[in-house]
Amino acid sequence: MSTNKRVRTLIPVFTIDMGGIPIKQALPTTKVNQVDPFLLLHHGKLKYRKHGKAIHQGIGPHPHRGFSPVTFIINGEIHHRDSRGNNQIAKKGEVQWMHAGSGIIHSERPSQELVDQNEYNEFVQLWINSPAAKKMQQPKYQYVPEEDIPKFYSEDKQITSKLIAGTYGDLKGKIIAESELLILWSTAHGPGKETFDLPKGFSAMLYTINGEIKLKNYGKVEKECLVVFENEGERITVETMDATEFLILCGAPLNEKIVQQGPFVMNSETEILEAMRDYQMGKMGILIEE
Question: Could you tell me the pTM of the whole model?
């Protein structure tokens, strides 16, 4: 008999300054450093200068090594370019999944069309740690168009869930991850209810992007809150009252030592120093945006 998970902690977002850009952060916090394998969750809403070039706006080139930064596009269009030659625009409802591996430089900018229309980008970015054995693999970028993302529906047809990574029932996500994950992106059109079966022993979180939900055995959760569940239990029951959007993020814990310095996440101080040196020496490639 599977049981409902209990809530361990609820984290409302708080605003941080990221190089002059205000970003909402739910993870890490002073009390919760990580929810293994999840390291960071940011929620951003960016406006742009209408008459400026898109290539000079948004987030410019920066490096990563040792984990996967994953971007969920809630609204708008994000133009990804990287030092491996990937150059791709993802739209509302789509995901940009990059395993930084041994090192990559990328930029995240609005599309020119978005700037011309004076629209905004809204996104959630999640950092997923990579197992030590995969940290120095070749980097790779994955993108799945909206129409190719597997979906399933609540019995009342009010909640649509997209399977981004992992397996759910008979469905298999298109993204190939570096560790065992289950990532769902759910949208409710109105009052609805869905019970989600989650993998046993996985860390599990739920982030409310917009709208509020009710969790069985807990109660109301407002928008822009991260719910961290206890490891015991295999399911969660979500009730929606109105139009709502939320992410369910589950992963097998890696249980490895982490050393992080800015955009590099490794297993020792020595590896961090090597990452900084390799970046300065140009070993993570060069990104020339055009």
Answer: 0.97
